[in-house]
Design goal:
- By secondary structure, this protein is α/β, with parallel strands linked by helices.
- Helix content is 46%, strand content 13%.
- It contains 20 helices and 16 strands.
- α4 (95-104) links the parallel β4 (85-90) and β5.
- The model is unreliable at 131-141 and 396-403 (pLDDT under 50).
């Protein structure tokens, strides 16, 4: 087997499918297999490098007849390896599932059964689109793409805070580009650029490994510790240590991180010697950490220490015409990578692009451009072709949902709606907004149904029942 084969992660709970595809794809890829989301975490921790591409089934244990585990896994894989190309291979091939998988960050969706030859073409095609250095920066610089007020505000904040030695917290939804802001804007183009940049995703590592990974360990500190090992705080030197998904940091480790932030002091696991870190700490989260503090899941003192400076990476829906600028950027980039002429959008498709909310943010936009580049090189994409790539109903009734229990504002919005349209279907409108909120909550929770239910203030069973009603 060639040593330079790309590493492929295959996740399917059917042993026959896993064995058959492993054999069929083995000539072109180094295949590692998994049968569930929890097992997949174990597999990834044992690998020396992240897989370049993944084939993921949606129906995984313990709910093989639902797509929830597969949706959650997509979010976890991209959290641990943002450059991974994910293709969903699933028997749950309802169009809603395909669109939602793409919104979460999957490159494409393929219904079972699929011939191995077609899968090889798809996987190799996905690998042709080399990972960009980030979703919201230009190809060779760290200039954020966009002219909207939120992006201008982000640029100003970065310029103010980039060279500071104080901690910084980056807030933003999944897929918005927080890692790019950390690496490119807050490290590569600052005085620390010649120093190391190390990143740890707190959601993608076993809780038991977080402490030795960050602080290092002494020989014999735990089973398997054959020798002393420095941690990220030591290896980062005077560079930058990026802690992504900081809201997932185990509660018992938070005081130790707080100590480092306050005076730079830490100890390796199994040692009593105090060491000092001079690295700058940049943390990121897609959670509301203030709410986590109130719920007792995150320490208030750590939150205040991390958020000395706070920047917010805006969601794409708030970036006005920037989505067209990003379209131009990625279209040119991927056409150059593949050697194909770029596609164009018909006027009605361009209008649809401009009003689509992109719930998966820049990551979703980028993946849509990748698919359109592969499917329609040098051609004009119509509104029907574009609509197939978007998630859900992209032309909902322009009703404003009630916010914060403000009945007066909601009544005014409803009045404007009735005056402009004459009549509405109340049941359809309410059903639309219910589904919109559920889809939004699932997106923010990376497909985690329990987390989505918490955001919506309902229990998990109720959320499952409402989601199942969509199929009736």
């Amino acid at each position: 087997m060639p040593k330079n084969n790309p590493l492929l992660l295959l996740v399917d709970d059917d042993p026959l499918i896993s064995e058959t595809l492993s054999f069929a794809l083995g000539r072109h890829f180094d295949v590692v297999t998994s049968h569930s989301r929890s097992h997949c975490r174990q597999v990834l921790r044992q690998l020396k490098q992240a897989p370049e591409v993944a084939l993921v089934d949606l129906g995984l244990p313990p709910f093989p007849h639902r797509p929830d585990e597969g949706f959650a896994l997509i979010g976890e894989l991209l959290a641990s390896a943002p450059a991974m190309k994910i293709i969903v291979l699933s028997g749950q091939n309802e169009e809603d599932n395909a669109r939602h998988a793409r919104t979460l960050g999957a490159i494409d969706f393929v219904a079972k059964p699929c011939a191995p030859g077609e899968l090889i073409k798809l996987l190799q095609g996905a690998l042709r689109f080399a990972a960009t250095s980030g979703p919201v920066e230009t190809a060779n610089t760290c200039s954020l793409i966009g002219a909207s007020p939120p992006i201008q505000r982000l640029r100003q904040q970065i310029a103010q805070y980039a060279d500071s030695s104080f901690p910084m917290l980056i807030e933003g939804e999944s897929g918005s580009g927080k890692d790019v802001v950390a690496h490119c804007c807050l490290h590569r183009h600052t005085r620390r650029s010649q120093q190391p940049f190390l990143a740890l995703n707190c959601a993608a590592i076993s809780p038991g490994l977080v402490e030795p990974t960050l602080f290092g360990h002494a020989k014999g500190a735990f089973t398997g510790a054959a020798g002393a090992q420095p941690g990220y705080f030591e290896e980062a030197g005077e560079g930058t240590l990026f802690l992504d998904e900081i809201g997932e940091l185990p509660l018992d480790l938070q005081p130790k991180l707080l100590r480092v932030l306050e005076n730079g002091e830490y100890q390796r696991v199994g040692e009593t010697q105090t060491r000092v870190s001079r690295a700058r700490i940049v943390a990121a989260t897609n959670r509301d950490l203030k709410a986590e503090v109130k719920a007792g899941r995150f320490r208030a003192d750590l939150f205040h220490r991390l958020s000395v400076f706070t920047v917010t990476v805006p969601p794409l829906r708030d970036m006005e015409d920037d989505r067209s600028l990003l379209l131009d950027h990625f279209r040119t980039l991927y056409a150059g990578q593949t050697g194909n002429p770029p596609f164009t959008l018909a006027p009605e498709a361009q209008a649809l692009w401009s009003r689509y909310a992109f719930p998966g943010n820049v990551r979703e936009l980028r993946n849509i451009v990748i698919r359109l580049t592969a499917k329609y090189p040098g051609t004009t994409v119509g509104i029907g072709q574009l609509r197939e790539e978007l998630d859900g109903d992209v032309d909902p009734a322009p009703m404003v949902a009630p916010s914060g229990g403000n009945l007066e504002a909601a009544t005014s919005a409803a009045l404007a709606q009735l005056q402009s349209q004459g009549n509405i279907d109340l049941n359809a409108a309410l059903a639309l907004w219910e589904r919109a909120y559920i889809e939004a909550a699932l997106t923010l929770a990376n497909g985690n149904v329990s987390e989505a239910a918490r955001r919506l203030g309902i229990n998990r069973t109720t959320l499952y029942n409402r989601m199942e009603s969509w199929q009736r």
